[in-house]
Design brief:
The structure is a single chain. By secondary structure, the chain is mainly beta. It has no helices and 30 strands. The chain has two domains: 168 residues, no CATH class; 164 residues, no CATH class. Strand 25 and strand 26 form a beta hairpin. The two termini are 27 Å apart.
Length: 365
Amino acid sequence: MKRFILSMAMLLTAISFSTCTKSENGESSSISYDIEAKYLGGNYFGGEYSANGDSYNYNIVLSSDGEREVLDFVLGTVDVRQGHPCYTLDLHAAEPSANMNITFDIPVGTYTFDAGSTAPGTVAGDYSTVIILQDNSTPRYVNFVDGSVVVAESSIEATLTDTDGKTHHIIYNGGRSVNNADNFGTSGDDGEFSRLTGDLALGFAEPDVWIDTTLGDYFFVGKEYWMVSLYDMATAEEIYVELLVPMGTEKLSGEYPVSNDLYKSQMVLPGYVRGNEAYWSNYFHYTENETLKSYAPIVGGKMVVSNNNDGSQRAVFDFVDDLGNKITGTLDGCLLLDPQSSKMSHGRSMLRCMPNKRTKTYRLK
């Protein structure tokens, strides 16, 4: 299953259900669901799901509920209410997004349903569906067999036929810029989550480094995705950062600002909290049982990596959490890739960390 976060539930001001309505000329129409949408959202996946590498994937969502989250394919939750169908439409275009950092613009054009294709100009079948709650308890997923989606400069109109033979007509008027919550940009909960009560300076008396680069260009943005743990075994404190670095990087070097701006050559992805889990880059302090006693999302600052005379590297970080507390420290150690594996370097088990989503996450509660 394609894994993504739907960060915006879409508000629809008008929705009607019927098995037969009247068209303007008085003739009968077979439209079963006729929706006027006011908000849309979704995710841009680049070329990740292009079968032949010739298209770019824009998965958009239309929901008939209010401004609340109705789907979370990452956590596997569905919260669709009766009388409010939710649509996901998997569009494939010839053009990449020009502003995929925080938002993306759905390319103008006509997208024709083709269940087995990801060619440019198609609505792919695998991830295009409508979710309907009919008995107020179990959501029903209904796929499509035919139809099209027309994206204009200031409108989207879809007419699709599902496997039950029912026709869905959805029309949206407004901008076509959509928050890109899964790949980049803020997708965390609102609020302040740091448990720190002031600035924090880490000493790293017994440093331990763990690096995983096995995911490669995971986000399909021309940068390698690194997960790096800087851990002090003496205090059970950890700086965990997720980085985007130039392709072919063999060792960390230079300045890594906390940013999700893809135009930077390398960066630390900012941490955030969603539900009871922490994503991307964070500070963690563990108990003897390896449960969390304190944590803080890293949202600003930078890390600078330089070479020592003995062949090791020095990581100096000056981070800021979501309360404005400074998290500083220096660690001397090996930040090179392990030549035996060419991909991983770690000296301790990370079994306490349960991967979820596309990146490693930590359960906070």
